[in-house]
Amino acid sequence: MNKERMKELDVLRVIGFIFVVAQHILGGYSWRSGAAFSDSLVLSFLYVIAKPAVPIFIAVTAMSLCHAYLERINVIKFYQNRFLYIFLPYVSWTIINIYDTQYYDHQGSFDHFFGQLLAGTGRYHLWYMSLILQIYLLFPLILWIAGKIIKKGKVFQAGFLVVFSALYVILLTNNEVMDAIARFVFVNPTINQLRFFEVSPLLWSIYLVIGIYMFAGNKKFKELLQRFHKQLFVVYLLLLAYMYYAEIGSHLPVHYDIESKYINCTIYVSFMVVSIFVFYHLGCYISSQMPRLYFLLSKTAGNTYTAYLAHVIVLQSVAEEITKTYELKSFLESGLSVFFLTVAFSLIMAEFFSLLPFSQVIFGTKNKYYPRFDQIIRRFGVYERQSHGKGKSSM
After folding, report:
1. Cβ proximity of 322 and 314 under 8 Å
2. Residue ranges of the domains in the chain?
3. What is the pTM of this model?
4. d(CA 369, CA 358)
């Protein structure tokens, strides 16, 4: 039986990818030496808006996997798909990124390569892959727990969410516990071993729970978002204003901090969760009310995983070319130029790779190459056509 497609997730994947690129570029340009104060303020504001990129991706992962597997999961097939379409492309792009780092920065090394894969230290943006691979490894267990919670009554579900949220804030505020666990397990842990624990799914688990809850009560949740979207947006703006103030505060003549680390952490997590709700509502609106824009985004969404893995390579090339060719005195102009071009070229490059044979297992794109290649891959049992969320990446 075909399930109804959650179209809004296509929009969220694209938004999440754009936000990741924004963080890596706009945040870096915002307070560079020589940048005008006004440029830094604008760049910092855009950077803060983009901060929920990873929470959005994790919530999308939870919703899409629950949608595909909650009723029934073939564990062997699940791990097989993740190995072929997530892990193998990750290995390919880690190798490419290390070579690119050696070329541009004269850094990077293939020493302890397997450790780099597990910890996501092949390049600075690949830490997310360690996180998502750990989530995939644990997902059958997570799915079993989610199924038990969903079958409980509303009171139990609400109580679980409140208790879990409180414990999560405590854990996040005292996240050095993960470092202590790493040192207990390995005694003298390497950088990769420490990094593996530092990106533990526990430190992002609230967004998995939120995604599962959003899926479980999806129809009712959409109705609530539609009914209270104005109030939600007001709360979002208030939290955004505080997060923006916290971001630029150290650069202001007078700056007041909230001393309680628990209050700060609660505000931070609240901003991330409310941002997920706001952009999920935007995804619902675009997918239902803006068919042309949704068509474009849905065609783009399948390439966001590849674009994510490749975007730092594109970023380096674009930034170098703009610096050499154009004399942009404004950091705002140069930052936005690099940002828009990186997004565009990363997605275009991913689309090109999708036309090549074996692209899904090498580069992580959707398969769009000629039928004769499709037949070859089917003959060797490598390619499995995917539909409606099964086997898709969360990117």
Report:
1. no
2. 8-379
3. 0.90
4. 9
